[in-house]
């Protein structure tokens, strides 16, 4: 039986769900040949993201109030917005803690992971590998990574529910209202060719892996030979929280986390105002 949240999905949302492609049905070679289908004219039209037009009014760079280094918009070392715009940047409270493990060769100024730390500073922590906690000794921690044994996020609640119920015969009506069955989610921030070293670290090995429902990226950084379903880190965090909201909490999504894409949307539009999308390798075939 469908939940109230699922029944209240709009027709547009339902159509989007039907368009999602299950990549497990395709070979790696087939996936690499797939072309993006997103409309690049206004891909954020269904989201409620705070107005970022004031960022265009910034003249030059300013000093970070913490480290003193020259920055624009925010400091990607201290993960704070510049003082002149700090009161205009949206702030979010997330339903769980988010840890991001960044590869040391990932350039700070180009990483979208920083966006999450700036917008949700109380709930997001960034580690630079090899500096990271020993997650394998912790309970209720998930690794968002498409491992071969990963659970699809749509099935996460039923999987964890079976592990925690005293009896599989216990009627569903006796169980409490769904709550997030974990306290922390870990993301790896690097190119896909760099992920294995971090993923195979003993401090991460053993974590329950979950994979996201497939979406197409809007990221402008080109990754050779990778399909358009390989998301930027901020996109992965955003879609993870949306899927948790819908499929685990069984609640209707009402744009609670859209502002995580505040800087991402601004930079996407900035780049597309300067360059023709057809000239960017990341959007070839659109």
Q: Estimate what percentage of residues fall within beta strands.
A: 5-15%
Would you tell me the structural class of the helices and strands?
alpha/beta
- Note the main sheet: 6 strands, parallel
Helicity level, as a percent range? Answer: 10-25%
**Mean model confidence by pLDDT:** 79
Using only C-alpha atoms, the radius of gyration works out to 20 Å
The spatial strand order of the largest sheet comes to 6-5-9-7-10-8
Shape descriptor reads: globular
What is the number of E strands? Answer: 10
The helix/strand order is: HHHEEEEEHEEEHEHEHH
Q: CA-to-CA gap between the ends?
A: 39 Å
Report low-confidence residues grouped into runs of 5 or more: 5-26, 30-37, 165-170, 172-176, 279-286
* Number of DSSP helical runs: 8
Can you put this structure into words, describing what you see?
With 286 residues, the protein is an alpha/beta fold. The chain has a domain of 158 residues. The strands form three sheets. A six-stranded parallel sheet has the order 6-5-9-7-10-8. A two-stranded antiparallel ribbon has the order 1-2. A two-stranded antiparallel ribbon has the order 3-4. The longest helix is centred in the C-terminal third of the chain and has 16 residues. The protein is globular. The C terminus is likely disordered.
Keywords:
alpha/beta; 8 helices; EC 2.5.1.25; six-stranded parallel sheet; 286 residues
Layout: helices, strands, pairs:
Elements: H1 4-7, H2 11-19, H3 28-32, E1 62-63, E2 70-71, E3 74-75, E4 80-81, E5 97-102, H4 113-119, E6 124-128, E7 141-144, E8 151-152, H5 156-164, E9 184-189, H6 195-199, E10 208-211, H7 233-248, H8 262-274
Parallel strand pairs: 5-6, 5-9, 7-9, 7-10, 8-10
Antiparallel strand pairs: 1-2, 3-4
């Amino acid at each position: 039986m469908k939940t109230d949240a699922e029944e209240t999905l709009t027709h547009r949302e339902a159509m989007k769900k039907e368009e999602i492609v299950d990549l497990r049905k395709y070979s790696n070679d087939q996936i690499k040949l797939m072309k993006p289908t997103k409309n690049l004219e206004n891909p954020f039209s269904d989201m409620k993201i705070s107005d970022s037009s004031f960022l265009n009014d910034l003249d030059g760079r300013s000093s970070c109030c913490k480290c003193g280094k020259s920055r624009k918009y925010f400091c990607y070392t201290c993960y704070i917005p510049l003082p002149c715009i700090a009161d205009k940047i949206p702030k979010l409270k997330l339903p769980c803690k988010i840890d991001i493990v960044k590869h040391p060769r990932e350039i700070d100024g180009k990483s979208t992971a920083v966006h999450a730390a700036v917008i949700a500073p109380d709930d997001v922590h960034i580690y630079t590998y090899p500096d990271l906690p020993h997650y394998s000794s912790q309970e209720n921690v998930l690794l968002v990574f498409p491992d071969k044994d990963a659970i699809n996020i749509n099935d996460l609640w039923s999987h964890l529910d079976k592990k925690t119920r005293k009896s599989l015969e216990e009627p569903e009506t006796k169980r409490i209202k769904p709550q997030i069955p974990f306290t922390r989610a870990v993301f790896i921030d690097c190119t896909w060719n760099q992920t294995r070293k971090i993923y195979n670290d003993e401090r991460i090995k053993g974590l329950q892996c979950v994979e996201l429902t497939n979406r197409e990226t809007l990221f402008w950084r080109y990754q050779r030979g990778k399909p358009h379903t390989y998301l930027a880190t901020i996109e992965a965090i955003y879609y993870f929280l949306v899927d948790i909201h819908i499929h685990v909490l069984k609640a209707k999504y009402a744009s609670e986390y859209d502002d995580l894409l505040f800087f991402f949307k601004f930079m996407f539009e900035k780049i597309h105002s300067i360059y023709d999308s057809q000239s960017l390798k990341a959007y070839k075939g659109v």
